[in-house]
Amino acid sequence: MNQRQTNGPAHAHTFGQDRKRPGEARTLLVIAITATMMVVEIVAGIAFGSMALLADGLHMASHAAALSVTALAYIYARRHAHDERFSFGTGKVNALGGFTGAILLALFAVMMVWESVNRLIIPVAIEFNRAILVAVIGLLVNGASMLILGHHHDDQDQDHHHGHHHRHDHNLRAAYLHVLADALTSVLAIVALLVAKYAGQIWMDPMMGIIGALLVARWSLSLIRTTAEVLLDHQAPEEKREKIRQSLESDGSTRVTDLHLWSIGPGIYSLVAAVTTRSPLEARHYRARIPAGLGVVHTSIEVNGDDE
Q1: What are the structural domains of the chain?
Q2: Hey, how many other C-beta atoms are within 10 angstroms of the C-beta on 293?
Q3: N or C: which end of the chain has fewer CB within 10 A?
Q4: How many helices (H) and strands (E) does the chain have?
């Protein structure tokens, strides 16, 4: 006996991607806030001669662009969710948006280092009081943006209902990291300006720019790694695969000979498995053994008879 069963010809492949995700509206709000503060900090950084403040403003400029990519990813995934050209829906657009945001984050880290090194070599006079005031305002704005993107209790309730979870939303995580990086550079700018003003250590201003860039680069590389795993169909965590394997083999006469489990969207997975058994059943019986709550939304199981 050899049979294969999938979710069936009438099975939809949108997997909830046609619904508007909570992160979309929050991202659009943060874009407006970020763009406004970006203009203020860039103008102030140039006018007052602070590299740390200018870096913070440029940082916001890159993040306004990156957040726009995040928003476009949400909109694109939702509007094309029913497009049959996407084999498993548009869930991976989420990971692609996060990956793109991470790349932009890494590029900005390089820009920060470049500008900071230039300021170390060629110091610029700083108007400390005005620069500190703008940096503090920037920090408050960043804090507000973090609260907007970080308060996701309602999202969790909605996502659990659909089998999703906020932590799998790479697109939203990219947006949050961009805002977090903004907050970090604002803090570093304030510290650098205070030290430079009261201790006369002007070099602290560009040095903080370098330190901030290194931390931003670290966050960026982490997000690049996690989103690349999704885009390259990396196997799901071993814990999930083992639970499925044990469930399929629970009757004692079935052996799983092949199992592939990979992410096709935020918190959702596709499963392809092959089992060999002495007493073959229809594939739907094996599908029914897959534990609920693992986020498996698309399944294809091949059942082979054991001739031994």
Answers
A1: 22-231 (1.20.1510.10), 236-305 (3.30.70.1350)
A2: 8
A3: C
A4: 9, 5
Taking Cα atoms as reference points, which of 54, 213, 208, 39 lies closest to residue 127?
54
C-alpha 210/C-alpha 213 separation (Å) is 5
Contacts of 60 by beta carbon, 8 Å cutoff, 6+ apart: 34, 35, 37, 38, 41, 42, 138, 182
**Which residues of 147-284 form beta strands (DSSP E)?**
254-265, 268-277
CA distance linking residue 274 with residue 285, whole number of Å: 13
Sign for the CA dihedral angle at 203, 206, 208, 214 comes to: negative
Cα–Cα distance measured from residue 223 to residue 232, given in angstroms and rounded to the nearest whole number: 14
- 3-state SS class at 50: coil
Residue 24 half-sphere exposure toward CB, CA atoms < 13 A: 14
Q: What is the mean pLDDT of each run of 10 residues along the chain (308 residues)?
A: 50 62 76 82 76 66 74 80 76 84 84 83 77 82 83 42 48 78 80 84 80 82 87 91 92 90 86 90 88 87 80
Q: Which residue, 215, 238, 237, is CA-closest to 167?
A: 237
Instruction: Tell me 253's DSSP state.
Output: S
Burial 32-60, CB ≥16 within 10 A → b, else e = ebbbebbebbbebbeebbbbbbbbbbbbb
Report the alpha-carbon distance of residue 113 to residue 106 in Å, rounded.
11
